[in-house]
Amino acid sequence: MNIQSIDGDFSVCQVADYSQVPLDAPFCFTGRTDDEYSLVCRTQDVPFNTVAREDGWKAFRIEGSLDFSLIGVLARIAALLAEEQISIFVLSTFNTDYILVKKENEERALRKLAEQGYQIQSCGL
Which residue of 10, 39, 105, 116 has the lowest C-beta tally within 10 Å? Predict the structure, then answer.
């Protein structure tokens, strides 16, 4: 299985509303509940109406479309990184999963995955 390391720094944010969110940016993931507007985007794209944010994330994705019947793909990656004491922030889209780790853990995370047979590639945005 291939893992693509996505260039750039990412931020996890809480925003007042989505009026200033750069929906056309190459990476923009929103989530809304009854009491929160969340956003994950490149740090350079964080909007001014951010209420809270955490910077310093690096992202990588599981390459290709993942069939909904596949079991344990994300769980295996999470377990491997947990063995290294690396916490993750996960995003899922219709096609695939994205894993974010803090910048200081990126090299260790990718090295662990490579040791376990994952092919690591770089992907610019």
Answer: 116
